[in-house]
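TEACHING EXERCISE
Course module: macromolecular assemblies
Task: Read the component lines below, then compare them to the predicted structure of the full complex.
Student: A.B.
Group: 4
Components provided:
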Amino acid sequence: AQKVTQAQTEISVVEKEDVTLDCVYETRDTTYYLFWYKQPPSGELVFLIRRNSFDEQNEISGRYSWNFQKSTSSFNFTITASQVVDSAVYFCALSEFQGTSGSRLTFGEGTQLTVNP
Amino acid sequence: DSGVTQTPKHLITATGQRVTLRCSPRSGDLSVYWYQQSLDQGLQFLIQYYNGEERAKGNILERFSAQQFPDLHSELNLSSLELGDSALYFCASSAWGPQETQYFGPGTRLLVL
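Instructor-supplied answer key:
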């Protein structure tokens, strides 16, 4: 069975600090997709990034960057110069294929990030 | 705004009752997924429909059922409700295949008293 582990339950930083959220996954599939979602206090789940297992190139989007390392089964997420609006729960997720057109996301436990002014 | 809509936003009901949660996917998306988020279980996959057919099933209770209609909207039916069914229920949609990104609706917060 697939598994996603986010060992950091809570992280608290001061505004403008850089912060890295860790994600480690387990899968037997050779083709898979990894995701990060953000859940702000309002409760919705906001998609941030998708990465496939064949693309290990790191990605940067503004203050966000992602480091995918297949060798260590990790997909870490860094926020540079954090802001109060970044305060949210962040989930890492792994897609699991089930038959034809079947899939499901396996989520980690989430990391509660609090950015203090 | 993800383009996925869910109604109602909040639902308060009593144990033993039955409720129906509704989801409309993004325009053009054929797959609909249901997830449950609770404090003790985290985010758990319930079931997936693709173009009206069930395609993947998670640890969905027998008291729960879902369907996807010809217009692609989906309903999740929860019956014989228990206190432990109180949770945030999310619907997500994707274009079609497993590699596609799932976009989530705002969720329905269910409270069973």
